[in-house]
Design a protein that fits this description.
The chain has five helices and five strands, in the order H-E-H-E-E-H-H-E-E-H. The longest helix is centred in the last third of the chain and has 10 residues. It is of the alpha+beta class.
Amino acid sequence: MLVGRSLKMLPDCIVISFADTAQGHVGTVYQACNFTYHGLSAKRTDWKVRGKEHLHGQTIADEFRGVENRAQAMRDKYGDDFFLAPRPRKHRYVFVVGSRAYKKQARESILYNQENYPKPGDER
């Protein structure tokens, strides 16, 4: 109810949200709110440092903000403790808010193909 009512309060816009596969989520709440499903996010990697795995990669990188080659600066400081870890892909959901004309135009501009909703236990 909160999500549905909150969406109605927004001006014309496209809302994009993700469900975290690493947590076993498939986006059941987004499905119930009539978001459209547009597949999984791209494969990515995160910067990690041994002993600081709990920190987000961007938090670690912020230490080197403004440095020309952050990755190399991190390798120089942390040595073998610096590594790249694969980031779990996420389910991508889209909801368009606005007038009928805006919704039509916005849906045509979405770059990802709409797919059927994933269900718990689906192997993707």
